[in-house]
Amino acid sequence: MSERMILPIGPQHPLLKEPIHFKFTIEGELIVEAEIRMGYNHRGIEKAAEERTYLQDLYLTERICGICSHVHATNFAQATEEIMGLQIPPRAAYLRVVVGELERIHSHLLWLGVAGHEVGYDTLFMVSWRDREIAQDLLEIITGNRVNYGMNTLGGVRKDLDAEQIDQTRKGLQELAERTLYYGNVVSNETTFIARVANVGVLPKEVAYSSGAVGPTARGSGLDYDVRKHLPYAAYGEIPFEVVTSPRGDVLGRALVRVGELLESVKIIRYCLDHLPDGPIAVKAPRKVPVGEAVSRYEAPRGECIHYVRSNGSDKPSRVKVRAPTMGNLASIRHCLLNQQVADIPIILAAIDPCFSCTDRTVMLVKEGTREAEVMGWEELRLRSIARRPI
Amino acid sequence: MSAQTGSWVEIPAGEVRQWVADFLDSGQMRVLSTITGYQEGERIAIVYHFVHKESAGLNLRVFVPLSAPTLPSISPILSAGLLYEREIQDLLGVTFEGILDPRRLILPEEFPVGVYPLRTNYHYHGAEEKETPGQPGGKAE
Amino acid sequence: MSKIINWSRRTSPWIIHFNAGGCNGCDIELVAVLTPRFDVERFGVLLKGTPRHADVLMVTGPANLQIRDRVRRIYDQMPNPKFVVAIGACAISGGIFRGCYNTLGGMDEIMPVTAYIPGCPPRPDAIIQGVAALIEKLRKGD
Fold first, then answer.
1. What are the C-alpha distances in Å from B77 to residues B31, B63, B87, B141?
2. Which residues in chain C land under pLDDT 50?
3. Does B130 touch chain C (CB under 8 A)?
4. pLDDT of res. A355
5. Residue B113, min C-alpha distance to chain C (Å)
6. What was the pLDDT predicted at A39?
7. How far is B56 from chain A (nearest CA, A)?
């Protein structure tokens, strides 16, 4: 077996004046304190959005994150459309859901691979990323691109689905549904994997609530908030599906939620294809936007994503505020780490499915009561964790 | 306005911690989604975006003067507010009194103190106008 | 001597991957290159965890103030001969973030770049093509 020393998303190891991104205080192998420092991916997007037109900002927000670009593009479009007083055509609403759910599938499979890699289960990484390519192919067939799909415009979508694309999508979904059963089996029955994730990184429901956790991180602790169900957008108000939760509160709970959501996503897409409304795919949007403000929320793979847009009546927004879900989950991370073992750091952090665009991976371990500090890179930490807790 | 945007409430900035405490006690909060700051002329608005348990958005807006941008932090009673308040401190220069952790959150260490990128007087050069490669442009007027 | 070095370089370039503040689009396509569908290892390409063993630095993202010195330090830690591949529009020119207050205008503001693979993001096939072109260039002894 060849050497595959990778982290699916490359580590960032800043060693500027303050090298610490996660700083852990340890006693033996136990974490007694954990601190977080953000900012290594701060690009100044909100300010840039004020200098660009709404349509340009659609493409800018799409690139906040390459894993969930449709999330941000749709969210921004929805907020802007509300200020404009635009109602998108029903067919466009359904198409936005199809792409959004395919994105959820690719993202959760990506996460499964990352989680597997973090605990030394590289077969799971290879298999899940191979299956993920099914979703990538469908996204490419439908939108023309594997990443950054450019599916939306202000007022609707830019690409329609023809009979052949629908047919190919159904075939791909069939494969994905079968593969999901395999992953369900892994998280339910694969004892070596379960041993690394059960009772690890526990987040009690009350802490999830007060720290503002969202998405599978929160639903894995029994909090049942899902924007698609509680504040439905696009076509979700008409589509039957289940919100997946787990009462466990540990990393395994979050894994069970994500695998459950894979199955729900397949069902949702099938429903959309079966009930796709006829009609146009976009309405015309004005170049200048009336004075106003709107909030839009979207259930991203990682949780609730919120956009707040303010218009001053010109062709450029006066304020675009974005809170991606990972920031909502970061506050909970400290609690998940306290009194856990150093060897479990990688999988506990992976369990919130951090969008690596905004999290860094240099770790500093500080022995309590001393001034000694050991700085290690993520890869070192991961290997050490696999050695201490082999799968 | 859609259910997602929901309703708007405005109160004096000094009352924000009490208002949030009452809201929490009522058990009607589903989540604090985020806190937004924006400048409007000589004042800065802070908007707390909640989701109400009756499945609607609820936005609480307060104003502070640019000359004295200070208000109570809600982080002691709702830890979800901490990172959002820190971000507004960095980008708009608002001070949240009693905040649990006042350190810089997202701006680089070498970014000048006292310069707030989201304030309207902050302008940055486009890449075409940059004089020094390897440095971003931008300064406050 | 350079003939021997070139020969060993062309048979198995060892790569380090660094995300300098990008959106992860390029990074995921780069990682996909290692997975069974694309399988870049058949070219003898190996991903290493440390710069000290790497020949090629594959870098993504527009780079910002916080990350700039670190990228440069990784480059400095690599032994000679070393090569830099800028993957994606952001690493080439800052991409869609060009002009933002916290971002730079391309990796060649920080260090010499050997090859550019354009795209937003480039497909895995394009990345493999870029890697193959680099290997070809090394084989020719440039």
1. 14, 21, 18, 37
2. 1
3. yes
4. 66
5. 15
6. 65
7. 7
Strands A292-300 and C83-87: unpaired
Q: Is A109 exposed, middle or buried (0-12, 13-18, 19+ CB in 10 A)?
A: buried
Please indicate whether, in this complex, the C-beta atoms of B136 and C110 are within 8 angstroms of each other: no
pLDDT tens for residues A14-51? 221 222 356 777 777 888 777 766 666 677 788 889 98
What's the CA gap between C30 and A95, in Å, rounded? 28
Q: Which 110-129 residues of chain B touch chain C by CB within 8 A?
A: 110-111, 117, 122, 124-128
Q: Which residues of A touch C49 (CB under 8 A)?
A: 5-6, 377, 379-380
Using DSSP's 3-state secondary structure scheme, residue B88 falls into helix
Inside any domain, residue B85: yes
Nearest residue to A119 via CA among A30, A251, A256, A221: A251
- β-pairing, B56-65 with B43-52? antiparallel
- Arch. (CATH architecture) of A46-322: Orthogonal Bundle (1.10)
Any CB–CB contact under 8 A between A3 and chain C? yes
Whole-angstrom distance, CA of residue B70 vs CA of residue B72: 7
Q: Please, are residues C99 and A48 in contact by the beta-carbon 8 Å criterion?
A: yes
Q: CA-to-CA distance for A387 and A383, rounded, in angstroms?
A: 6
Choosing among 1.10.155.10, 3.40.50.12280, 2.40.10.330, 3.10.120.10, the CATH entry for C2-139 is: 3.40.50.12280
Please tell me if residue A357 touches chain C, with a CB cutoff of 8 Å.
Answer: yes
